[in-house]
Amino acid sequence: MLPIFILSINNSTDRSFAEVLYKQHKNKIYKAVYKILNNKQDAEDATADTFIKIIDNIKDYYNKSEDELISIIITIAKNTAIDKYRRKKKIEFISISEDYIEESDFDDINDFIVKQALYDKLYTALDVLDEDYSRIVKLKMGYNYSDKEISKILNISVANVKTRYHRAKKILLKSLK
């Protein structure tokens, strides 16, 4: 059975092309996003979100070779999964942080304000970084993931994670001075 978002396409040529893409690539997409999300429901959602993104720009894919098409689709899928993963972890991280921060944890309210200002400055400095560096810093510092876990999430080598993290720290230090 085809998802409703494919059946809702008005142009019959676009709909037929989307059906073919869906039938041929849904399992590949699901496997790619499941490796990142490790959750059946989230992987299904990310698969659907991927196809919605593909359908939004379907005319761009007509003249692509099969290899180009697979590469593009898997890239969209992985980015969609990473975005979903980040949103989910960010929500968990924020809610945990807010639950455990109490005024009694600080000597006085001034300490809290100073620490919050430093956190805001660091978070703003992350905008200076390229997305590749920023992802690694957020995963490592914000969520305490190991280099190995980050390499699995981003599908890069552990050595690449270490190199990017080192470079990101240098850039952050320069921007914070």
Structure description:
By secondary structure, this protein is mostly helical. The protein folds into two domains: 4-84, Orthogonal Bundle (Rna Polymerase Sigma Factor, Chain: A); 103-176, Winged helix-like DNA-binding domain superfamily/Winged helix DNA-binding domain (Arc Repressor Mutant, subunit A), CATH 1.10.10.10. Helices cover 78% and strands 0% of the residues. The protein has helices spanning 4-7, 12-37, 40-56, 66-100, 109-125, 131-142, 147-154, 158-176. The longest helix is centred in the middle third of the chain and has 35 residues, at 66-100. It is elongated, with a radius of gyration of 20 Å.
Secondary-structure blueprint:
Elements: H1 4-7, H2 12-37, H3 40-56, H4 66-100, H5 109-125, H6 131-142, H7 147-154, H8 158-176
Helix pairs in contact: 2-3, 2-4, 3-4, 6-8, 7-8
